[in-house]
Amino acid sequence: MIREINKRDYAYLVGIWESAVLHTHDFLRQEDFNYYKEQIPNYFEHVSLWGFEENEILIGFLGVSENNLEMLFIHNDFRGKGIGRTLIRYGIDHLKVTKVDVNEQNLQAVGFYQHFGFKTLKRSELDGQGRKYPILHMGL
Question: CATH assignment of 2-139?
Answer without folding.
Answer: 3.40.630.30
